[in-house]
Amino acid sequence: MSPLKPIITICGTTGVGKSKLSIELALKLAEGQHGWKGARIINADSMQVYTGMDVITNKVPVAERMGVDHLLMDFKQPGEQYVVGQWVQDAIKAIDETHRMDKIPIIVGGTSYWIQHLIFPNRLPTPSQSLSDSVAQSIANLSPELLELYNALPEHPPSAATRPQDAMLLHKLLTALDEPIAQRWHWRDTRKVIGSLRVIKDTGKVPSEIITEQSKIALAPRYRTLCFWLYAEPSVLNERLDARVDDMIKEGLLDEIKELRAIASSSSCTSPDAVVAGPTDESAVEQTDYTVGIYQSIGYKEFHDFLASPKLSDKLFASAVEQMKYGTRQYAKRQIRWLRNKLLPAIYSANGAGGHAAALLPVYLLDATELGDQWTIRVLGEGERIMEAFLGNETLPDPLSLSEAAREMLTIDVKPTNPTEVLRARRKVVCAVCTLDTSQPFMVEDGAQLEAHRRSRAHRRYALRDKKMHGRPTKRCAAVHNNIPSKVDAEASDQQDEHYSMA
């Protein structure tokens, strides 16, 4: 029997029913299971930490929480920034308190990035007031222009589309300080570039050095964790998500967005951690950084043009609704990608080769494609059965035996989990053939993406152009670019957290 204390996590896409399942399991535990006196739910949704804004963040109404405690919800002001490191520390405190009450912590939310860092310690950088010798030397060797930029990093990442020179300069600074990490991020991904630079300022170490240190630490869980992945077939889920957007509008979504716009345009925010402060006019709203805090909520950005228009426009309204529906569907796809490409490989690596019966982190996919009676059987029934076996230290079923969806989604290709291996696997290269402007090179990830790009129609067209112009095609596609990396890493950006995550 493991000495680690038990927790239950529920991950999955937006709109799949995670909160519903967590409440149902908590009520089951309240009946008294294996000596536990109930459960408390700990929120792991990065948007639901904010007070109010219940519609845009899709919180379960208090009346529907059935008296179950919900922690780390409704406790931050909408103008505040709250990042993964803060949440992990707060979650650990809530978990310890819950265990002391002889209750089971159920961590539930769509921010799987947060849950992963809760399960696996030693994967976040530690702040420091001093610089390492190598960083101090690199800073001393910076040009005056780059040194000035380092000492006054922009509060919000510049848009590479409208300010490409600023984006390039930021990447040039990162390259001068930490070339391996600079080869990881696309120069257009200014949010990640600035995030890496802030890690240097906050920790006194370059990210690649931190990654090397992390690689020497085995991936071991903080708790004995039962992981539920609540899943619905995408075509079915997408219809539900579209309908939910329509319902959100009826329930007052636009009023909440107007309230957020008022906060963004306020000249006095209520917290020193506020992410927006400025003049009390529309220009402050225009300058809102949609990548931080509650301003990331899907719907806020999408309805900007409609609400900023001096006249009501049915066309702008319809466009905003469609953009919100599309953004929600895309977000669900990215959540699945993170689970399969990040969380599952880490869990499988930590579990080793002992099989599901000996796993410290058993993971089960519950198929919520069908609702009604099928939810009761395939989600709640299976979830209760597995939970009871887990808490009773009984033999657990084979995760792949639950459904066809479980067999398909839980079976993944072997992926590196060691931070250094992950960094090497995501190296970027520049395709000189497809680079039309040398100040803004075309980048692609080395390996399978590079090979696929070489076979693309666009690449072959540009290669033919070069052959006609120079008598032979340019053969520089696989050269590592020392100034800029490649395609924006949507997968890493999905989790929408300003704090830098190693690997």
Number of strands: 8
Order of helices and strands: EHEEHEHHHHHHHEHHHHHEHHHEEHHH
Q: Note the quaternary state here.
A: single chain
Poorly predicted ranges: 267-281, 476-503
For the report, how would you describe the main beta sheet?
6 strands, parallel
Q: What is the CA–CA distance across the termini?
A: 31 Å
Instruction: Supply Rg.
Output: 24 Å
Helix vs. strand class = alpha/beta
Kindly state the mean pLDDT as a whole number? Answer: 84
Q: Which strand order do you get reading across the main beta sheet?
A: 3-2-4-1-5-6
Fraction of helical residues: 40-55%
Shape: globular
The fraction of residues in strands falls at 5-15%
Number of helices: 20
Overview of the molecule:
With 503 residues, this protein is of the alpha/beta class. It is built from 20 helices and eight strands. A six-stranded parallel sheet has the order 3-2-4-1-5-6, with helices on both faces. Helix 5 packs across helix 6 (164-177). It is globular, with a radius of gyration of 24 Å. The two termini are 31 Å apart.
Short description:
The protein is of the alpha/beta class and 503 residues long.
Ordered list of secondary-structure elements with their pairings:
Blueprint: E1 6-12, H1 18-29, E2 39-43, E3 70-71, H2 84-100, E4 104-108, H3 112-119, H4 133-140, H5 144-151, H6 164-177, H7 179-182, H8 190-203, H9 207-215, E5 224-231, H10 234-250, H11 253-264, H12 282-286, H13 304-308, H14 314-351, E6 363-367, H15 373-391, H16 404-409, H17 419-425, E7 428-430, E8 443-445, H18 448-454, H19 457-470, H20 490-493
Parallel strand pairs: 1-4, 1-5, 2-3, 2-4, 5-6
Antiparallel strand pairs: 7-8
Helix pairs in contact: 1-15, 2-3, 5-6, 6-8, 9-17, 10-14
